[in-house]
């Protein structure tokens, strides 16, 4: 690939995985809406469960309580599942270097090198502390701004805006 426009270097660890999952959820408003619907469903289910339990219909009431608990815990369980999937990847626990060029990006670690063109990135989302590059429906590469070792945040933003048609920015939490 051509000359590097920007370079990121970071350790793929638990903190990285948690941050990447949080950013993926913030970048998808439908997931936030789904979480709200789940919590509302849990509250309604618990209300009906209390009604059944107060009329001594124990089996139905207990099933509704369990169903409400499942609805309430499904989002944290999904966070855990996605973070666990990141931990099973070959790069977990290793220092990863990501180079962004005009042609695409490369990821390098001591065990492997990966090259890809910008066509493989379906969406990019800018956050106040970095960029999230989607490379599949539930697969993304988190590029934390603090890990930028070459280039500037403005150069990264300009390159991604030019190369990825589906580029968007998420407002800072203070602006939202």
Brief overview, please?
The protein is α+β, with helices and mostly antiparallel strands.
Overall radius of gyration: 21 Å
Give the structural class. Answer: alpha+beta
Name the overall outline.
elongated
Largest sheet, in brief, is: 5 strands, antiparallel
**What distance separates the N and C termini?**
38 Å
Fraction in beta strands? 25-35%
Give me the side-by-side strand order of the main sheet. Answer: 4-3-2-1-8
What is the overall pLDDT average? 83
Q: Unreliable runs, pLDDT <50, ≥5 residues?
A: none
Helix content: 40-55%
Structure annotation, total helices: 4
Q: Count every beta strand, where a strand is a DSSP E run of 2 or more residues.
A: 9
Which oligomeric form is depicted? single chain
Element string (H = helix, E = strand): EHHHEEEEEEEHE
What this model shows, in words?
The protein is of the alpha+beta class. It is built from 4 helices and 9 strands. The strands form 2 sheets. A 5-stranded antiparallel β-sheet has the order 4-3-2-1-8, with helices on one face. Strands 7-6-5-9 form a 4-stranded mixed β-sheet, sandwiched between helices. Helix 1 packs across helix 3 and helix 2 packs antiparallel against helix 3. The longest helix is centred in the middle third of the chain and has 30 residues, at 58-87. The chain is elongated, with a radius of gyration of 21 Å.
């Amino acid at each position: 690939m051509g000359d590097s426009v920007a370079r990121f270097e970071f350790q793929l660890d638990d903190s990285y995985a948690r941050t990447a999952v949080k950013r993926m959820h913030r970048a998808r408003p439908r997931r936030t809406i789904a979480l709200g619907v789940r919590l509302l469903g849990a509250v309604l289910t618990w209300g009906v469960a209390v009604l059944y339990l107060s009329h001594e219909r124990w089996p139905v009431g207990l099933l509704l309580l369990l169903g409400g608990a499942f609805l309430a815990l499904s989002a944290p369980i999904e966070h855990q599942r996605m973070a666990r999937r990141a931990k099973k990847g070959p790069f977990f626990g290793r220092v990863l270097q990501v180079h962004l060029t005009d042609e695409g990006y490369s990821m390098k670690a001591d065990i492997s090198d990966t090259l890809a063109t910008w066509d493989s990135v379906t969406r990019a989302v800018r956050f106040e502390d970095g960029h999230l590059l989607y490379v599949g429906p539930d697969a993304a590469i988190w590029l934390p701004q603090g890990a930028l070792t070459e280039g500037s945040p403005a150069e990264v933003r300009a390159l991604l805006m030019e190369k990825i048609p589906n580029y968007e920015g998420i407002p800072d939490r203070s602006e939202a």
